[in-house]
């Protein structure tokens, strides 16, 4: 099990992430996050080879980086998905 301080840190981190998600959805005027699969995103993206190579090289969904040098960073945000919305 986790010590009390570790549990408190984990709960605080989870609460903070949830508050950030709610704030982002509010600013986008959405009630819930769009349900878009990674496969759908890949089909919608342009098929330009350089873009495909960058997406594959820097894919944030991977469990291991290509060179194995990246470590978990609890203090900085990472982008997992980018969704663009049409403007009026």
UniProtKB/TrEMBL annotation:
<feature type="compositionally biased region" description="Polar residues">
    <location>
        <begin position="78"/>
        <end position="88"/>
    </location>
</feature>
<dbReference type="InterPro" id="IPR001111">
    <property type="entry name" value="TGF-b_propeptide"/>
</dbReference>
<feature type="region of interest" description="Disordered">
    <location>
        <begin position="63"/>
        <end position="88"/>
    </location>
</feature>
<protein>
    <submittedName>
        <fullName>Myostatin</fullName>
    </submittedName>
</protein>
<dbReference type="Pfam" id="PF00688">
    <property type="entry name" value="TGFb_propeptide"/>
</dbReference>
<feature type="domain" description="TGF-beta propeptide">
    <location>
        <begin position="4"/>
        <end position="85"/>
    </location>
</feature>
């Amino acid at each position: 099990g986790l010590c009390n301080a570790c549990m408190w840190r984990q709960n605080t981190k989870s609460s903070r992430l949830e508050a950030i998600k709610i704030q982002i959805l509010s600013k986008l005027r959405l009630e819930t996050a769009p349900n878009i699969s990674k496969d759908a995103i890949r089909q919608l993206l342009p098929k330009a080879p350089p873009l495909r190579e960058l997406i594959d090289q820097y894919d944030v969904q991977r469990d291991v980086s290509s060179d194995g040098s990246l470590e978990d960073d609890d203090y900085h945000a990472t982008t997992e998905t980018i969704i663009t919305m049409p403007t009026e």
